Amino acid sequence: MLLSEQRKINNFVRDYADKHFRQDLNKIKISSANSTDHNLQVCRICCVLTKYHIPFMTEFKTKFGLRFDIATPTHTVKFIEVLGTETKVKFKEFKLPKLPSELKNEYYLITTKERPEIVL
Fold it and tell me: Which among 56, 67, 74, 103 has most CB atoms closer than 10 A?
């Protein structure tokens, strides 16, 4: 990993991560609260990110009280959310208002049926 990339990751974690929760880089964490289809889509997306050497963190908890399925600190999109029981409307109503202004357009919503490559 390049030093410039590591700096981006460090800054991202410092600026946005919940300090009371360990954020593991390039490890897939899944939740029993999610459906199997949801968890499989998270795994598929992480495989695509790994293939293209894009660092990621799963089950990313923010200091502003949100949890995202995937955070990608060095990518053009900082958060990826897999939609299952959560809808686009719910995301925009409940999560989007809590995001800082600099992150309002830094997310990608994907369903469990879409091809994971579209996050690139």
Answer: 56
